[in-house]
Amino acid sequence: MEAGTTLCLVGPNGAGKTTLLKLVATLLRPSGGDAHVMGHSLQHEPDEIRKRTGLLTVRGFLYDDLSAAENLHFTMRMGGLKPRRDVIARVLERIGLAEVADNRMRTFSTGMRKRLALGQLLVRPIEVALLDEPYSGLDSQGMRLVDEVVSDFKASGTTVLLASHQDGEAVREAEQTGILRKGHLEILPECEPLSRHLSVGGPAGAPEVE
Amino acid sequence: MGPISAVEKFLGILALLSMLVGSYVGLVVVPADAAQGNVQRLMYVHVPAAWLAFLAFFVVFVMSVLYLIQRDERWDRVAASSAEIGVVFTVVTLLLGMMWGKPTWGVFWTWDPRLTTTAILLAIYVGYGALRSFAEDGEKRARWSAIVGVIGFANVPIVYMSVTWWRTLHQPPSSPRSVAPDILWTLMLNLAAFTIVYIYLMVRRIRFARLEGELEKRMAYNA
Amino acid sequence: MSLLYRAWAIVWKDLLIEARTKQSFNAMVFFAALVLFIFSFALGPDTELLQQVAGGLLWVGIAFTGLLSLSRTYQNEETSGGLEGLRAYPGDPRAIYLGKLLGNIVLLLLVEAVLIPAAGILFQANLWPHALGLAAVSVLGTIGFSLVGTFYSALTVNLRAREVMLPLLLFPALVPVLLGAVNATTLILEGDLMGEAVVWLRVLGAFDIIFFVICIWIFPIALEE
Q: Which of A5, B20, B94, B140 is 20 to 30 A away from residue A210, measured at CA?
């Protein structure tokens, strides 16, 4: 992938989209071969990759008994940064959780959790954003937030790799699309209309590639 | 069971022969101990068994370290085989120890440092084996058991020292009696016999382990 | 140093959560008290006997209680995406071990701070003159326990039958710690006329150092996916 572009991964359930994202995030070790992320090898320099990558998973890495602000505080610390209140406040504002900043995560709805998980990617400076089903659990406002965040990423030159069943602006705006089936990845040519492979809220079928 | 190779046949026969010779010498040829009588002959099987129990675990340790460094599954197979065989020797050691203890000291069990350490060795072995049976993925199984193998082995000398201290602070240590050359020689003979048995068992077990590994891989592909 | 910084972040997080929910602490204190109580019943009202075995009983209680909290060490992470979450962050993964270790040590020491006086009352032993010695044993023993415990609970977190595997792996490894702690405690409570307790404290110290080095060295391998 070219730096600063967006690639959208589609494929049926079990195809391996999450696995691929986790591999790039260096959470899984490749059983063979190697790949390079921003010039760093997956096999030999995983830590360099982790420094510059942010992963958004379906469940998110959030602690129920901490508040939203504290969760972000923790994320910043674990990223090796000194947590700054203004940064956290700004991100909370961006993701629409400013009012509930000090409420425990336990009280949050699914959508709110998803937003906070998205916020975790925003408190650290990253060069590659890996988004696994970013739309799941979100209402239309939340989905718009995801689209905005992705276009912000694009504007700042962050590379985005997202896997999604659902259609959305970010998906449509992706420069490239990859279809993953049973572990085999095919990058579609640019002019392929993606919308005919997706349905809102439904799984992507197995498309025919001309 | 596949066809048995020539090496295995040779080792098997050698093992059997040496055990027979060792047992014959230990039971018939060597005179009974002056103090303890015939029961003392148990030493000729108890001590070699103990020695091998610890040797087997040392092998587990070395193989575990090699595996962690090189990640070659062959080392893992050898480690697992040695652990299985080691358990057998450990149990034999403990049983024989108890059989020896009852008529000699009147009790089945004492908190003697060596016996206690052997019992703990058994616990470590069992933990190793249980870990392997609960881990499904071949690579994880190898990695985790290698870690347990290393830590377990590192612990054995510490356990031995701790128990020894514990005993000496409560009881004066028993002074080692000087060993008659006859007895020593018989002991060595049986030790050699047991070692050959160990090697024989290892060779066969490793071959099975290799076949098991092949089977696992094929089943994984077909799944 | 980033390692300590991130380890501290994990300690902060775990202790903060614990302070808010008090899940582990309460359960541990009650459980430990229960264990001591039952032991006392089992051994009968003979005060002298109880005082002789007080050291042993205390540490058995601490061991079982510690086991309880260990199972929860990574359980906490389960609901928040598992250890995966922590592994996705950059930096040396040993920070995870260090952070969890310190959290466990602090928690267990806090429980002991309640438990040991309680044991003193239950066994009618006057503990004050021995406070310093008991504190030393407590700290060294808890460190030893937590070192191996934190390590093995990371190893078994993804294993089937984890509740059985953890004690099975842990207890053989803990023999030196238990021996050292029990003997030191008993000697200290008896007045330790010959200064033997120091020997056991040294055993504990040596164990702590050796296993700290081994565990922290091997930890990244245990954590691999």
A: A5
